[in-house]
Amino acid sequence: MPDSVLLLTLIVLPFVASIGAGLLPTGARDTASALAGAVALIGLGMVWAAYPAISEGTVLRAEFAWMPSLGLNFVLRMDGFAWLFCGLITGIGALVVLYARYYMSSEDPVPRFFAFLLAFMGAMTGVVISGNLIQLAFFWELTSLFSFLLIGYWHHLAAARDGARMALTITATGGLSLFAGILVLGHIVGSYDLDAVLAAGDRIREHALYLPALLLIVLGALTKSAQFPFHFWLPHAMAAPTPVSAYLHSATLVKAGVFLLARLWPAMAGTDAWTWTVGLAGLITMLIGAYIAIFQNDLKGLLAYSTISHLGLITLLLGLKSELALVAAIFHIINHAAFKCSLFMAAGIIDHETGTRDIRRLSGLNQSMPFTARLAMVAAAAMAGVPLLNGFLSKEMFFAEALSAEAPVSTLLNILPIAAMTASAFSVAYSLRFIHGAFFGPEATDLPRKPHEPATWMRFPVEILVLTCIVVGVLPAATVGPFLSLAVHSVLGNHVPYYSLAVWHGFNLPLLMSVVAMVAGILLYLLLQRRLRSDVEGPPVIWRLEGQRIFERVMVFVSWRLARRLEAVLGTRRLQPQLRLLVGIAILAGATAAWWRGFGPGNLPPSPVDPVLLLIWVVGGACSLGAAWLAKFHRLAALILVGGAGLVVCITFVWFSAPDLALTQLTVEVVTTVLLLLGLRWLPKRVQLPGERGPEVLSRTRRLRDLALATGAGLGMAALAYATMTRTPPDLLARHFLARAYTEGGGTNVVNVILVDFRGFDTLGEIFVVAAVALTTYALLRRFRPAQDSVEIPEQQRDQAATDANEAGRAEPGRVADWLLVPFTLTRLLFPVMLIVAMYLLLRGHDLPGGGFSAGMVVAIAIILQYMIGGTEWTEDRLRLRPQLWVGAGLLLAAGTGLAAWLFGRPFMTSYFAYGELPIIGKVPMASALIFDIGVFALVVGATLLMLVALAHQSVRAHRAAPRRAATEAGDD
Amino acid sequence: MNQAADLPLWAALPVAALVLLGAGLALVGSIGLLKLRSFYDRIHAPTLGTTLGIGCVLLASMLFFSVLQTRFVLHEILITAFMVVTTPVTLMLLARAALYRDRQEGSAEVPPVPPAAPPVKE
Amino acid sequence: MELVLSLGIGVLAGSGVWLLLRPRTFQVIIGLALLSYAVNLFIFSTGGLRSGSPAILEPGEVGTIAEYADPLPQALVLTAIVIGFATTALLLVVLLAARGLTGTDHVDGRERER
Amino acid sequence: MRRWLPYPLVALSLLVLWLLLTGSTSPGAFLLGGVLAVAGSGALAALTMPAAHLRRLATIPALLLDILVEIVRSNNAVARIILSPGGTSTRRSGFVRISLDMRSPHGLAALACILTATPGTVWVEYDSSDGTMLLHVLDLIDDEAWVRIVKDRWERRLMDIFE
Amino acid sequence: MSAAIIGSAVLIAQIMLVAAMGCATYRILRGPRAQDRVLALDTMYVNAAILLVVFGIRSGSIYYFEAALLITLLGFVATAAASKFLMRGEVIE
Amino acid sequence: MTGWIDHLLIAPIVVPMLAGAAMILVGDRSRTVVLALGLLSTAALVVLAIVLLGLAQEPVVRIYRLGNWPALFGIVLVLDRLTALMLTLAAVLGFSAFLFAICRWHRAGAHFHPLFQFQLMGLNGAFLTGDLFNLFVFFEVMLAASYGMALHGSGVARVRAGLHYIVINLVASLLFLIGASVVYGIAGTLNMADLAARMRSVAVEDRGLLETGLGILGIAFLTKAAMWPLGFWLPPTYAAATTPAAAILSILSKVGIYAVLRVWLLLFGDEAGASAGFGGTWLLLGGLATIAFGSIAVLATQNLPRLAGASVMVSSGTLLAAIGTGQVAVTGGALFYLTSSVLAIGAFFLLIELVERGREVGADVLAVTREAFGTGEEDEESPEHEEVGVAIPGTVAILGVTFMACALLLAGLPPLSGFLAKFAILAPLLTYGDGGVPATTWALMVALILSGLASLIAMLRVGIDVFWASPAPRVPRIALLEIASVSLLLVLCAALTAGAGPAMEYMQAAARALHAPGDYLNGVLAVPTTLPGGGG
Ligand code: NA
Ligand code: NA
């Protein structure tokens, strides 16, 4: 089988099967477990198939391009070490699947469970056979993710949710740190390829960035392997179904951390920094984990802390500067997987059969489930390091290393043997507690369920694992020896030290230490009997130091309270500060650039001051400042002043030879004023109260700040304008347009030719803006709901209605019709006049000031005038306006004119003009631009009316609603 | 201003006079806006500008362009016509609005609402 | 003349910014109107100021920069005026809707509590 | 004819308007102007404008001349009032209520235009139920004089034309 | 000669007209009543229209005429709307 | 003179333009016709975008001279890799949002469909145009339509947020105008390529003024890109908008990024003479601040729409900072990130509503106290029934999977493209500093990692709360099209992961072209082979 097929099958199959399992129906327990089991066995088969090549020292490798430009390829790489892990993953995986089939309730929707388990298997495989470190980080995070899903499988339980959340938060954070560390490592080495990195050990250790890389990567490994101070997530992960714990928390997930440390050992280990970080963390974890484990009342909790402790042991071994320690570490990885997995399974059986895992409630199970008890005892003995079991062997190696390792500082060296013995004694104590507490003593009578032996196949995986513990313990060299050698060789290459896997090394110091630890452990357990039976939760001395509590406090503070406070400080949801910032930063941006480079007035001699325009701008400035002053309490005045300022702008345009601008400005001015007046009716009355004058200190400073900003903006604009105006304007475009407006654009009004031809695309976009706005206002006004105090009919009208009601024989609107009699007549007469003027502006636009826009505005004004004087109903009875139709037709006409050029093989918006000869009329200019302008015209008429009429209709609605409201109010009284 | 040089003196003098007269009337009207005491007095002031004021200037403009272009320019008539038609609309609405507001405040300056007329029998 | 117009633009912009920073929606819309006058004039002014130059070509004429004002800024201003008009209308309707829905004409849709 | 050209006089005025605007008397201008004028009068018809039937057209020029004279006279008078230093204190302004006989909306509109166009008088209010009009006069010396001026000088002549 | 006469007359006239606009502005600013402000705006429009006609004479160009025309034809709509607002509390009923 | 293939350049603008206009004409008369037009247009845009993506890979920069005027005097559309990429993103997002909208949301107010088309037209126009003022116009088209989209459905929250959104954008538009007119006043051109060509030769005494104008212009862009402290408007606006509107709005902030990429790299590249690298540090610092603030905002909310809005800020900040480093390869990575983040955030916005549909009213209020971090009292469950899993209904399961996918994308975790996107920025960033690694690189690295962590924590909090902690989830009614539209975007993210190699090559090529705009300049400013002028 080619390497690539083998490796791909190994990694892809679990994911594919995971999707398959996820799609199974809820009740398909057998199908799902069969699928999962088959995948694990196939994987195991693949591992088996790879053995011949691996045993020859070949590294299986398959590489696929992924992001080659960034040095990221999908590399699958299996050496002896990876092979060993693959064996653990698939082999123990198969056993766990079998166990889970019986453990999980038939009511449980297990296909989901197996889907997660399979995906996890794939991710874990990915971690161990990644040949690219980025890819390793990729799968690393996936293991966190799927372990999260597995831990939270029973998400209806709060403990499961919390445990899952904590596990993911910590391991994924570690994963991100690992990712960063790998990036730094890649920067040092110049490649993320594992082989390249492993080959560059010396360069890495000497690089300035070694320490950051080391810290980041170690952080990732320690979090994953539940090392102090990140250990606390693991006990909470016990909320997962027991098969999950048996798989993830003994053999796979938590081993990923130590796997990584071992993997990178040749590249990164061997420095003081390494020993201090990795070794110290392992040492502390080993002790704390073992100590706490003694005081756990939950069987799984005990096993969890024991796992922490054993992983601490492995980490400590990896942290030492010794090849032999590495051998011991790898050996213990295997051993721990076997005994811990079987113990988890045993704990699960107890839980399954009795309904509880509380050591204090359990008792005398030896009677009801003797076979399980034997199995558990053997496994626990292996955990305690009893001779002739696998745990003893690696423990002996550890003791030997503790005595001989070279530590960076002698103090560490001195405490190592003592620490090793202490931890070992603790592990004896908690192993005793596990066995003694659950299986011995009088038979418990108040258990939730009546205990009996589990189903045969549920016990089978435990039997296999316990058997392994015994066989390895008795015949280490013959059984595990070759595999261990393979793994060690693939990590250390040529530097493998001599080590012996014999059961008996003669009477030596390590053996003495073992005996002492054993005796001390038994004594400790006996001493603690009373305390352990009491209801006191947690270990003495450090019971307050609960990692979870601290973690949650910190998380709530940092990620919620602090974040909210910071968001309030650094951000705002109010408009005024946002605008202040925007204006302020714009001023700053301009000022900084100006200050950096400096700009002064240009060299153009200033044109002589026209006293008339000067005076006009005195008026304009007064209007502008007046509007700013009065806008709060005298809205109408402000509006009128804006009108005045607009008029000044309009005159300025005239002054500087821009009649088109003047016309447009004027029409826009009028329509805007009418619009704002229409809106004024719906705003609250705002009158200046006597008390409102004196501004408080706070608001005074705020006003001063705003005044400064406004002054800054004004001065800035003035400076910018003056500097621009006094520079010779570049005239390339101007020349071009002036020269070609008539000859190539067919019009004498250059501005209009630019608008409808040279830059007609701008105009096309512009009318779509108008259309979009009109549609939006229409849509918004359809849902308009006036404020409570604006709903009522204005008092003017109510007063008049009351007066009219007193007059017999006069209908309510009578008076109004009277006052409006003359204006009514005159404005109706003006209607056709305005239309004719509009046509005039439209048709001559290309050659003379005018054009579609101003013409459209005039028509809209003409119509709105009728609305104003005649009233909505009257006008709409007579003029059937379909503003939306005008809008649509206008847009299509304008766009269609642009499109028509395609028919002639020209680009969009290419114009066409010619002078046609017509009888009687004579020469007639025919320009496609005119049709375009007519489109603009139609759109402007439609859009303006759509907005104005929609706004006007609100009054009609209010009038209709008012009597209704009056009626209901009367009914309420 | 270049074209003005081409204007014969006989035309220039009346054009100048008319322009000054018109502008003067408009100014006087606007001064009235400042000087006159009540709103109802002030409402008369701008009509100086809207009638004779603009009329004189338009006449000047007609004269100026007609002589220069040696043909009649009659555009300006339109402005006059528009002014005549539009001014009453504004002023009537405005006067009426002021009347309403003053009555509302019970001002003694304005006449009260006329007594109810006898119902008209059809 | 340039100084006069620059100062005019400055006054319009300053008044506009002042109003923009006020708390009432109506003040804001008036401020934006003034600001867009300032900006329109500014765009217009970038083509240089030409008083009394002809605005329209003679038929068949090839215009020159010596005689005519730069027409491009004018075209840009026209587009800007139209877009400004449309957005002012929209803002008006939105502020009315906000006033209707929230019951206040404060820009934040609620009075500032102090 | 009525259907296509509801207001011939209006249409004619619109044509004149068009010709004045374009400043052209070419056949093309006439043709286009004519079409637009007819369309414009149609638009007016849509607004259900009551048609005016003018009579005694011959009196119009004299009326216009009178109006012009009156405008010049009152411009002078009002300008004096404004400019004279004490003009504001000795003068009395006030409202005059005048009962009108004219009912034609066109006639009333014309009257309003005349009164507004002559500085010193402003039409304030009109009550159709009894046909009274409220006039504000800047320089009100004699109420009755104003009633006479309005009724004799303007209303009667307008009624001749419009009713 | 003609140029000087017309030129100075036009300049004086324009200054008078701007002064007139200034008066109107003062009235807008001072009020006291809303109707005064509306009236002043109307006056301002008229003065502006006259100013533009005079400017037409000054520049000898007929292209500014339309602006004056539009001011007279459309300017009143704004003031009429404001008046209507004062009179009835809303512009369109 | 122009082959049909040249017209393809303008088709992304013309198609929605015509569709929208026709929709207005049809009005309320036939809903079917409107829907058919919409479907036709949005689907056509996807096809067009793919074709243009192909065209963009040809070595020449394609240009389209509107009105057949030479590039200097008329307006040109330019197609390069970046443009094609942005067009594709807009088209895909548009298509998804359209499918989502027609299930129910388009009935929430009037004129949804034409506004939607105009929105797409504005976006496409902004991406295609090569003219600074025309860019303004299309910004306005886009914004005008976006106002409609943001306000679609009305209601207090939308109107309140919409008011802020509109006012701020109006001010930003004015700044844009000021900047553009200074550019015209000094450089005398509006064509971006021409402007770039003239940058070197700007007189010393004019350079300060020009840079002032460009600085102001930059503020306008950065406001739209929601850079801190100019982007506070974004989360509330997007959160308040209706779902499809929010999805389509989410690409709007990227238009600001696009503008920065386009204009800034064009004008201030290495060839800009004295102005080279103008403001780059500010871009980088602003980006970092935006990441920080966005991450804080992500953490500070339990409300999914706000969370999504804050995520948009994080993504904007990341892009700004990456661009601010001024390195080609980092820009390439940024483009990869841009693609991934647009798709992810779009999917997330669509998903949020589906998720919330199944939630009980007020659930999240309770959740904050009860389940923020499990600090509340533990639930009391009876031990007999506890250890049996709860079956998850299919709909909820699909939602859960899609939610998880979005969470992973936002947090930058594998297996979807979020992880690779961060890698694509970080890897070249670290590789560059061959001597020492500059502090800003570390800062950006920390910011990226921590922002991912913040997203993870926030999404975890909300996800657990929604999918796990709610008692007996009510199965929401979800149309197939709705979930399909979300899935489409997520599948694209997966495809981006799988095809990361070719995708990254495209992005790198685009980045190289952006940093060395010689081809762009030559392509745009080439003398047309045909006679100019539209006459005759
Ligand atoms: Na016990
Ligand atoms: Na009068």
UniProtKB/TrEMBL annotation, chain A:
Residues 825-945 form the Na+/H+ antiporter MnhB subunit-related protein domain. Its main location: membrane. Keywords: Antiport, Cell membrane, Ion transport, Membrane, Transmembrane, Transmembrane helix, Transport. It is found in: Cell membrane; Membrane. Pfam families: MbhD, MbhE, MnhB, Proton_antipo_M, Proton_antipo_N. It is a multi-pass membrane protein. This is Monovalent cation/H+ antiporter subunit A. It comes from the Bacteria. Residues 622-685 form the MrpA C-terminal/MbhD domain. The keyword Transmembrane applies. The lineage of its organism: Bacteria, Pseudomonadati, Pseudomonadota, Alphaproteobacteria, Acetobacterales.
UniProtKB/TrEMBL annotation, chain B:
This is Cation:proton antiporter. It comes from Neoroseomonas terrae. Pfam families: PhaG_MnhG_YufB. The chain crosses the membrane at residues 12-34, 46-65, 77-95. Keywords: Membrane, Transmembrane, Transmembrane helix. It comes from the Bacteria.
Automatic annotation (TrEMBL), chain D:
Keywords: Cell membrane, Membrane, Transmembrane, Transmembrane helix. Pfam families: MNHE. Its main location: membrane. InterPro entries: Cation_antiport_E. Belongs to the CPA3 antiporters (TC 2.A.63) subunit E family. The keyword NADP does not apply. NCBIfam families: PRK08965.1-4. The lineage of its organism: Bacteria, Pseudomonadati, Pseudomonadota, Alphaproteobacteria, Acetobacterales. It is a multi-pass membrane protein. This is Na+/H+ antiporter subunit E. The keyword Amino-acid biosynthesis does not apply. It is found in: Cell membrane.
UniProtKB/TrEMBL annotation, chain E:
The keyword Ion transport applies. Pfam families: MrpF_PhaF. The chain crosses the membrane at residues 6-26, 38-57, 63-87. It comes from Neoroseomonas terrae. Belongs to the CPA3 antiporters (TC 2.A.63) subunit F family. This is K+/H+ antiporter subunit F. It comes from the Bacteria. It is a multi-pass membrane protein.
